[in-house]
Specification:
By secondary structure, the protein is mainly α. The chain has helices spanning 3-14, 24-46, 52-70, 72-82, 87-147.
């Protein structure tokens, strides 16, 4: 056994409760947070403030929290399988990894929306230019019609 593993085992024996993972209070807090998150997500969906694809993502995260809250020994068991000596540290690593994936996905969406916005702005600029040319041609046509003499019967004197 190497020195690091021996020190970890000694640290585990010296710190009371390190093998237990999260406390009952932490699990109840986690369960309440997960239920509250699902409720808030459903409220956002109902009021059309959150799109379905994002709601699925956050609902999956809340479901993961509920599983951890309902099965208190699960985090400790998985930590043991992975060789993590402090179960809450595994929870934090997984949470940070999840948030990293979310940030990358939102950055991708933001880049895509930025490209679409730029394209739409260019199209609107072209449409404004075309509309200005159309209005200028229409104004020139009206000015040309107004400068023609009018016949006494109300018709166009240039055609008679």
């Amino acid at each position: 056994m190497n020195d690091v593993a021996a020190m970890a085992l000694l640290a585990q024996e010296e710190i009371p409760g390190i093998d237990e993972g999260l406390s009952l209070t932490a699990h109840l807090f986690l369960l309440a947070g997960a239920i509250g998150s699902v409720g808030f997500i459903l409220w956002l969906l109902r009021h059309r403030k959150l799109r379905g694809k994002y709601a699925m993502l956050w609902t999956a995260a809340a479901a993961g929290l509920m599983v951890l809250a309902l099965f208190p020994g699960l985090l400790s068991t998985v930590s043991g399988w992975l060789g993590v000596y402090y179960a809450p540290a595994l929870f934090l690593v997984v949470a940070i990894g999840f948030l990293l994936v979310i940030v990358i996905q939102f950055s991708w969406e933001l880049s895509r929306m930025d490209d679409r916005t730029r394209t739409l702005a260019e199209e609107v600029g072209l449409l404004h230019a075309e509309l200005d040319r159309y209005r200028a041609a229409e104004a020139a046509a009206e000015d040309g019609a107004a400068s023609r003499p009018v016949a006494p019967d109300g018709g166009d004197a240039a055609r008679t």
